[in-house]
Design goal:
Radius of gyration of chain A: 21 Å
Number of strands of chain A: 0
Largest sheet of chain B: 6 strands, mixed
Shape of chain B: globular
Order of helices and strands of chain A: HHHHHHHH
Oligomer: heterodimer
Largest interface: A-B, 39 and 52 residues
Strand content of chain B: 25-35%
Chain lengths: ~240, ~250
């Protein structure tokens, strides 16, 4: 017999209790964050990409032709979108190596929990990149964020939510294909357009000191997009898993 | 050493797998074509067959990784379709030649993650017990990427048995294992059977499969073409019958 006694305890208080949706979501997210914390490859890649992108835009910018306040919102959200894709690419990539995805799918958790767990980890990843990228934009383009930092943080989180909701789903779809690295941006970017537009327009109105009422229509688009796509992608996710 | 089924007779007599007319198609091709299977606690089915006849697909159907195109499957009396398959899946352990581990996490973290996903009350203790059973507890804090292929396989087996599954699905589980690892696996499988679990063992090694089995089956073109009790199987004639069936497809 085996070296260790390996029998399931019979006491009822020791009986397993299958994790519910929220618990399973947290377990998947925590596992993904632990992997990223150990390797740090995707986060640093995304961060370096964001800072290099900013630098290139900065040197290509003619301040006499375009005012910083007009350019900065576009640069910020374009950089943010592309650096976010690097994190999304990795999301299901870690499950592909050694077919860890099989073990995840064999576990007694709802499929939606896998999607939501991945989305939570991706959201924190993207938010982490934003925490450094947004002040870097302010520094490069000398735009004052002091008075609008709270509103801008809210927009950044809403934009991150939309990007992550769509990107996580497409990451799951693309990962099994031979051209995953190409397919993910091709699938995702068209869906990111409304997010980037709404986020850039809202940011530019805030930076220009326009009345908040002017930003509301764009903010509503952002909110609507998030609401629809978080729900739709969570529902659609289990169907992407069927071979 | 193989542990003989020694659990409570009632526990061993319980049906563990009741599959009826399982079909799975990919495009127009039937990878599994009407397989029916009934296994009780303590029983072990050794499943043989050449590559591409549907053995792994059958395992994936029983593990709940694939939905059948037709047919039903109960694990421990619970359908794989009921409550999204969660209850049935909680009773299944899957061992494959792929490790299904996260290379950046340690052996303990991998097994503990599985224990949490299966809702075990004391995941850390359960993980250590499983690692001890596979004789790899001394490497518990080593990242999986730093382990040899054989040790990774042992950790993978610990991950699969941490929740004490009622049905163990093993796809070439001895791949990469050394003598100690093989003995640990054989002991762990024997112990699971002794406690009322059923095993389905897919292997190309007839001797290895027949040594553990209470039943043996050969699969061809998605179907069982032979299915018999181990007692009725003679190793030498079974090997030649298997070769005949395999070469008939070439």
């Amino acid at each position: 017999m085996s070296e260790a006694t390996f029998t399931r305890p019979v006491a009822t208080d020791d009986a397993p209790q299958l994790p519910g949706l929220l618990r399973a979501t947290w377990l998947v997210a925590r596992k993904d964050l632990a992997i990223e914390f150990r390797t740090r490859t995707a986060f640093f890649s995304a961060l370096v990409f964001a800072l290099l992108g900013l630098t290139i835009f900065y040197f290509a910018w003619d301040p006499t032709a375009v005012a910083a306040i007009d350019l900065a919102p576009g640069v910020l959200w374009v950089i943010f979108t592309f650096s976010g894709l690097l994190g999304l690419q990795r999301s299901f990539g870690v499950e592909q190596a050694d077919r860890a995805m099989d073990a995840l799918l064999a576990a007694p958790v709802e499929r939606e929990a896998i999607y939501l767990g991945k989305a939570v980890a991706n959201f924190l990843f993207v938010a982490g990149v934003q925490v450094i990228a947004i002040p870097a934009v302010a520094l490069f383009y000398n735009v004052p964020l002091g008075s609008i930092w709270l509103s801008l943080s809210g927009i950044a989180l809403l934009a991150a939510l939309g990007i992550v909701a769509v990107g996580t789903l497409f990451s799951a779809m693309a990962v099994n294909t031979r051209l995953a690295e190409l397919l993910l941006p091709m699938l995702s970017l068209p869906f990111f357009v409304p997010i980037v537009m709404a986020a850039a327009q809202t940011t530019s109105r805030l930076l220009a000191g326009r009345p908040e009422a002017e930003a509301w229509p764009w903010l509503r688009i952002l909110l609507g997009f998030d609401l629809v796509f978080v729900l739709a992608c969570a529902i659609a996710f289990p169907y992407t898993l069927d071979e | 050493m193989v542990a003989e089924p020694s659990g409570h007779p009632e526990q061993r007599a319980r049906p563990v797998v009741e599959a009826e007319g399982l079909v799975r198609t990919f495009g127009g091709r039937r990878a599994v074509d009407g397989v029916s299977l009934f296994l009780r606690g303590g029983e072990c089915l050794a499943l043989f067959g050449p590559n591409g006849v549907g053995k792994t697909t059958l395992l994936r159907l029983l593990a709940g990784l694939l939905a059948p195109t037709a047919g039903t499957c109960l694990v421990g009396g619970v359908s794989l379709r009921a409550d999204g398959g969660r209850t049935a899946r909680s009773r299944v352990g899957l061992i494959s030649h792929a490790s299904m581990l996260y290379s950046a996490l340690t052996a303990r973290e991998n097994v503990e993650f599985a224990a949490r996903m299966y809702g075990l009350r004391r995941p850390a203790e359960a993980a250590m017990r499983a690692l001890q059973a596979m004789r790899v507890a001394d490497r518990a804090e080593t990242p999986v990427r730093a382990l040899s292929r054989g040790l990774q396989q042992r950790v993978s087996i610990a991950r699969a048995i941490v929740h004490q599954p009622l049905l163990l699905l093993c796809d070439e589980p001895y791949t990469g294992l050394d003598e100690v690892g093989s003995a640990a696996l054989t002991d762990a499988l024997g112990e699971r059977r002794a406690h009322g679990a059923a095993l389905l063992l897919v292997t190309h090694n007839l001797a290895e499969g027949l040594a553990l089995a209470t039943h043996a089956a050969i699969m061809r073109r998605g179907r069982f073409v032979r299915f018999e009790e181990r007692g009725a199987v003679d190793g030498a004639s079974y090997a030649s019958a298997y070769r005949e069936l395999v070469t008939a497809d070439v």
